[in-house]
């Protein structure tokens, strides 16, 4: 079963349901602080000296509970806090009082460096962060990040806005984060994915009935691939595995369309046609004789209608350019209304001249292309990735794969999906071309647009992870994914 992810509103609803079943308001905080202490002990058993940075709300309260357990276990503990942000809420004040009563020590942070410690626990802010940290908090966060000890964040690395998954100001960079109650969708995409370090969830032993809240997103892991990639029928033929038309590769960009075509074949497309510039045809056939490559020479020439008629799916964009050649091919390719995958310059052409797209078109923008499509800047895309993916899907009535760390698949009226795989080695030219080819091949093999986009993004990320495990992230090339696409597109094979 795939894992459910939640937004902050859903988490608050779960918390409310759980609290309504208990007459002890502080029970959840006690479990959170104690659970986090157990994680710390498990992860850093030799840690003798701890610094616990506590904020004014319930996240700080969790920190005081942890600090009390650590102290009662004989560790050398100090709570660090900014004087102006001492505990405010009733629960946090009580947790602080219990810590002090147990002989706990509090250090007021003014500026400069923190004292030595084996682990720094970050309990400044959790899901309640309401704005960018002020100057004094920013100085404390910067000192935490400079500290040589590993940083262990409670619920959310402080400074990350858990509603949107971005950081409005300075943020703690954790080595490990323990989330309370349920996994948050926002922490698994964009910059938050980096700031959290390793993520783990503590459900606080809540009654399962408290989780009677709809998931806000669905988390896709490589083990989900079998959902969409059943073994083939023994009597199937190439026509049943779909024919993909790949259009692109303006002068100087022949590699992009080659990568897309090869990825489509390695992901199981039965037949692949490529329409590209004449000089690329020779190179393409030399590397990939299985593709059927056709030269499209003149800017104004009509594309041979046969290619489009024969295709089950058209994939346009890699290396297409935005000149007359690309723009004419873009118009002609979309005219027949075939299922389409639009990538790269096809997205830029769409941004420049919005148009009605064939039903169930798949768009695969990176953040820059998404920004152009919405007329906003790239920073605004990254500040709220789930929202942007959904808005884009609704604006174009299309399926959208918003690429980047933690790719998001969105479609109108559907619960979004998050791809929990992939690595920074994949941030290299040509990776997106591979993704477009993979998605087109899966669509041609009969998956609907939302599933083809989901399965394709997952297969691509999992292949990238497998290739990185083999030889590392730095220097990873899109062509390194090809054997892994094939391997992982057959999940019935023993691992
Ligand atoms: N949701 C739950 O069921 C549970 C929550 N717990 C903890 O409680 C946290 C949420 O608690 P809260 O809602 O109190 O939120 P936080 O503790 O995250 O912070 C809210 C407090 O910080 C202040 N604040 C927000 N942004 C600020 C800023 N930039 N500068 C200065 N002050 C700022 C607010 O005014 C408020 O006092 C969770 O993240 C988790 O750690 C746990 O105790 C366990 C149960
Ligand atoms: K925190």
UniProtKB/TrEMBL annotation:
InterPro entries: Carbohydrate_kinase_pred_CS (IPR017953), CARKD (IPR000631), Nnr (IPR030677), Ribokinase-like (IPR029056), YjeF_N_dom (IPR004443), YjeF_N_dom_sf (IPR036652). Residues 221-492 form the YjeF C-terminal domain. It comes from the Bacteria. Its EC number is 4.2.1.136, 5.1.99.6. K(+) binds at residues 59, 122, 158. SUPFAM superfamilies: Ribokinase-like, YjeF N-terminal domain-like. Binds 1 potassium ion per subunit. Catalyzes the epimerization of the S- and R-forms of NAD(P)HX, a damaged form of NAD(P)H that is a result of enzymatic or heat-dependent hydration. This is a prerequisite for the S-specific NAD(P)H-hydrate dehydratase to allow the repair of both epimers of NAD(P)HX. Homotetramer. This is Bifunctional NAD(P)H-hydrate repair enzyme. It comes from Novilysobacter erysipheiresistens.
